[in-house]
Amino acid sequence: MSRKIGFIGVGNMGTAIIRGLASRDIEIHGIDLNTARLDELHEELGLVVETNAAEMAGKCDYVLLAVKPQHAEPVVREIAPELNDSKCLISICAGLTSQQFREWTGNACPVVRVMPTTPALVGEGVFAVCLDDAALTDDMKTSIPELFKGIGTVHELSEKLFDAYTGVIGSGPAYVFYFMEALIEAGVSLGLTRPQSVDMVKGLFLGSAKLAAESDHSVAELREMVTSPGGTTIRGLMHFDRNAVRGTIIDGAIEAYLRSVELGE
């Protein structure tokens, strides 16, 4: 008998997860104000369109909350009467703790926090999954991480590390795109056309990430392999070091971490 999972919210991230589950033996339900998106997912993937969140929660084994954090509490309180210890509430809402969800549900069911990254939209996300809740069954602890493996890599983390994850990894795609933008502008300033610079920089990051993922060398060793004595690369890297670029990146990630802590208070 297939499991049933209900999505409250089918925005970009919710839809990415749904697409990753489409080939599994899972019955997918969904509710959203965007009825056109629901109809599209129904036609394409067989999603069961729902019109009442509480009724959907009553039907499903797992309820995945994919709404904006400020909208989470009223939705969770609405579905709480339909939750019980055989179900599981999964949240991908940034900054909201498991304890908050337990309060809103009256400890009706186990809670799992999941933090995704936007590359999940192309099947290359990085997911942090918190399985700290003592009420989780062994089956839940096994099956829930599996839900996300079709659209990226999954890392089990204690909730106390979620703010660190958010500062470094959750916000990380923006840092990468920021650096990509800078290199694109550098290419244009040195005479490349913008389309040339964009294509080259995208290829640079794609190839570098693939090399880092598949090589037995550490990223420091891979950097050293490009850095010939007295060459062009060491000249650029020395300029970065003189301007504390490494430290600035670290400080930026720490600032994002601190903001994540603030949001959870």
CATH architecture of the largest domain: 3-Layer(aba) Sandwich
Determine the CATH superfamily of the largest domain: NAD(P)-binding Rossmann-like Domain
β-sheet strand percentage: 5-15%
Q: Tally the helices: what do you get?
A: 12
CATH class of the largest domain: Alpha Beta
Q: What is the count of β-strands?
A: 8
Structural class: alpha/beta
Q: What's the assembly state of these chains?
A: single chain
Q: Major β-sheet, in short? A: 8 strands, mixed
Tell me, rounded to a whole number, the average pLDDT.
Answer: 94
Sketch the topology as an H/E string, one letter per element.
Answer: EHEHEHEHEHEEHEHHHHHH
Residue share in helices?
40-55%
Query: From the alpha-carbon coordinates, what is the Rg to the nearest angstrom?
Result: 21 Å
| Total domain count | 2
Describe the model.
- With 265 residues, this protein is α/β, with parallel strands linked by helices.
- The chain has two domains: 3-160, Rossmann fold, CATH 3.40.50.720; 170-264, ProC C-terminal domain-like (ProC C-terminal domain-like fold).
- It contains twelve helices and eight strands.
- It has an eight-stranded mixed beta sheet, sandwiched between helices.
- The model has no long low-confidence stretch (mean pLDDT 94).
